[in-house]
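Weekly modeling sync, notes
Attendees: S.R. (lead), two postdocs, one rotation student

Agenda item 3: backlog of single-chain predictions. S.R. asked that every request posted to the team notebook include the full sequence so nobody has to chase files. The rotation student volunteered to paste the first one in as an example of the format we agreed on. Action items at the bottom.

Example entry:
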Amino acid sequence: MFWTEKSKKTRTFNGWVDSYSSNLYKTALWMLGESSTAEDVVQDTFVMAWDSFDQLASQEKVLSWLLTILRRRVYKEYAFRETTFSAESPIEFAGEVGKEEQPGEDIDLMAALQSLPLDQRDCFLLSSLHGFTYQEIAEQLAVPTGTVMSRISRAKQKLKYLLGEADQPTNKVLSLQIQSKQEVS
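Predicted structure, as returned to the notebook:
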């Protein structure tokens, strides 16, 4: 009996790895901006998922569960970066934007995404990359649906502006932030 349960668990888990590795990798890459770090985070995600296999409440929510584990691992990576390297460190991570970008400057999508606050980036990627609804994202992140909607809206506005698809941000707060930074320069 024990062996059949273990082999069923192994088969199920291997199916998850086959089905969801590329989705998790894409998400990690877009969040972190570094291929090797994204690979490590995905591997850690699957190790954590294996260790907590029995905690999954519903087989229909495997991807959501794996993405939650992945996001937590990404947050740990950001915390590690902040505590390991000082502000004076010459090391810069791929995709980091050290200054507020101006429209028309050469900025790629990865750098633009990296410039978004992490909460906006999470919501935007869950929606655009994985196709989750606002309600599903709200449940995953344990925030109100309206918060998810506003985070995605702000992310889209800033991305359009940074990628040169909008003359100026339509969000008054973002517009004021950019305008005040331009006046200081």
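Discussion: group reviewed the output briefly. The domain at 104-185 is CATH 1.10.10.10 (Arc Repressor Mutant, subunit A).
Action items: rotation student to repeat for the remaining queue; S.R. to check formatting next week.
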